[in-house]
Amino acid sequence: MKLIVNADDFGLSRGVNYGIVDAHELGIVTSTTMLTNMPATNHAFQLMEKYPKLKVGVHLTLSCGAPITTDCPTLINPQGEFRLTSQYPLLKEHGLSEEEVEAEWEAQIQQFYKRGVTPSHLDSHHHIHTWEPIIPVIKRLAQKYDLPVRTGFRNPPNGVRLWSDVIDAGFYGEGVKEKYFIELYEKFKAYDGTIEIMCHPAYIDEVLRQHSSYVEGRLKEFEILTRIKLAEDVTLI
Q1: Using an 8 Å Cβ cutoff, are 134 and 94 in contact?
Q2: Paired residues of 58 in beta bridges
Q3: C-alpha angle with apex 200: 193 to 160, nearest 5 degrees?
Q4: What pLDDT does residue 2 have?
Q5: What pLDDT, on the 0 to 100 scale, is given for residue 88?
């Protein structure tokens, strides 16, 4: 059984950043994806240099913080922050400019290349890259930068390499329990492909509270991710 344990939201806050690198150093986290538009982005890049075995990708967002680009009226609210929330799939009319989305996401990706760093892969905040109106954008960017993308698509786009064969998003909220890993193993122990687990370990700080409704659960995730012992035939990659 081949397992990727990816910690989302690197860069959101210093507490999140420290929680992720500790969950890597002391636990089973193998990769993370960074919000490149947030208060602790620079701190996250600094930590990358200290943890070279931690694979770091881009956590593309249209629903957290403010954009990097300045000419994107369809993406923002009157306060200049992203106007979408986690409830974006319920929108009957999204009103987004595909060109603005692509320019903004490319700017987020470029934060890596401007520092001479190649990201490991692409995924997104609230899985928005799998939303039908956005798929043409993620396809073009993945192909342009030759980067694999987190799966989760209803119909994976042709010509895009996937970061894993399966993603399991069950380790979240009420699903954050040690038995999660036992159940995951029983479900996939005979599976020959690669499974990605999405997780959100963190130490809690005020910036996290300001930007996320998912707070206390992150510390519980951290505790389990640094304590759990996986079956001997599970390979972390």
Answers
A1: no
A2: 34, 122
A3: 40
A4: 97
A5: 86
Which of these, 39, 44, 49, lies nearest to 10 by C-alpha position? 44
The amino acid occupying position 39 is: P
- pLDDT score of 91: 78
Could you report the per-residue pLDDT of 153-204, keeping only the tens digit for each? 999 999 999 999 999 999 999 999 999 999 999 999 999 999 999 999 999 9
Provide φ and ψ at 7, rounded to 5°: -95, 115
Question: Under a CB-based contact definition with an 8 Å cutoff, are residues 53 and 34 in contact?
Answer: no
Counting as low any pLDDT under 50, the low residues of the chain are none
pTM beyond 0.90: the answer is: yes
What is the rounded distance in angstroms from the CA atom of residue 192 to the CA atom of residue 208? 37
Per-residue exposure over 176-196, b if at least 16 CB sit within 10 Å of its own CB, e if not: beeebbeebeeebeeeeebbb
Q: Outline where the chain has alpha helix (H).
A: 14-25, 41-50, 98-113, 135-145, 179-188, 206-211, 216-225
Rg of the chain, C-alpha, whole Å: 17
- Work out whether the CA dihedral 51, 54, 60, 65 comes out positive or negative: negative
Q: What is the C-alpha separation between 52 and 216, in angstroms, rounded?
A: 28
Q: What is the pLDDT of residue 212?
A: 96
Six-digit token pair at 88? 């974006």
How far is 25 from 113, CA to CA, in rounded Å? 25
